[in-house]
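Review form for a predicted model. The reviewer records the input and the model, then writes brief findings.
Reviewer: anonymous (R2)
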Amino acid sequence: MEKRTKIIKLVCAAIVIAIVVVLLSGIIGGKDLMYHLQNRDKVGPLTRSDIAYQNISAPTATSKDGTVNASDWAAAYPNIVATMGDNDKNSYVISYLEQDPYLVNIYEGYGFAKDYGSARGHAYTLEDVAKTQRPHAKANCLTCKTPNFAKLVNDQGVGVYAMPFDEAMALMEENVSCYTCHGNDAGSAGQITITHSYVNKALGTAMAAIDPATLSCGQCHIEYYFTPADSETMMPYSDVSAMTPDAILNYYNAMQMPDGSVGFYDWIQPSTGTKMLKAQHPETETYLSGKHAALLNCADCHMPMEMAEDGTVYHSHLLVSPLENAALLSTCVQCHGDTDMVNMVHRLQDRVTARETEVGNKLSDFKTALASAVETGKMGEDALDAVRAIYREAQWFFDFCYVENAEGAHNSELAFYCLDTAEAKIAEGMQLLGL
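Model under review:
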């Protein structure tokens, strides 16, 4: 009887192991699982301790400007360079203007009313900036599209930002690449180098308070503006505490303009006469204001560690959503336990998107009402200016949420705060219009 019981237990154990193997194969891929079994003593998540960082001399640069590009590094880091070009999953573009038609109205008079689509992977940055229907007279539009532009600024100074776009574009050779985050020293044990000069200028010693793996992404995934004096790309704060939408709005409202006026603006809207602000893509500001920043950096959630057939462990440089990668999702378990993270995050994003649609349509109605008041002349200029100020702020808070690409996943509290604030200001403005 005892022997039979042992046999049954062994059979059950074998079945359990088989089920686990099948499940793991479905989650991380049968081939990936085989790498784990062949190259590691235990099956489990890869960690940074599994990476044997190299410290090697940089190869000779083949770029005309001296930037060591990805193809130059391919011999030293073949697996990493291979993932940088693998962007099939992120090659599509969603037109936000078709998805959310109210945007055309609230962006009236600005380039985003003509062309506004979802961002693609890093392999498409130069192609997309060249094809956009938004006008770009100056080279500053290339700021985050290519390491060659960062190198040009580093070599020649801020005057580069005001170069004619076409003249600068002709000098660009590579999409976002190794130099962007590592300079020309990618072989120095994975050392992060902040290559965008405006980040160093804006933050200075405050950079030390931000994880380098987050700040390297934050060079581009930020709110920024072009300085009125020389068209330089700049960040509207000097430390993490000032990265909130309220503090940034105060920064813009207090800025001295070249003509002696006070208050920065991206454009003056034709129908309302409002000096408008256009938020960019404040992923870093939103993330650093949330709970996750104290626990994780950008790489932890968007750059999974992988293992090649020869046992080499490396960070994939194909930036992905953690919802689409089992290895990245495993980091969520530390705090969220057995929560179904994919469903939880999608439900959250659906709530944020629904609120965006609701508030966005209200903002569009507010804009139309203000334009009508301007056209009919039923209000004096001082009264109109009071409404314009409220409209400018309502647009700012709405935009800060809408253009942040995580749809609440990075910081849901801030997303709802921005939308609630925008809605309250819309109501205030409509009341002043007598509506």
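Findings: The CA atoms of residues 245 and 397 lie 7 Å apart.
Further findings: The longest helix spans residues 341-376.
Recommendation: see findings above.
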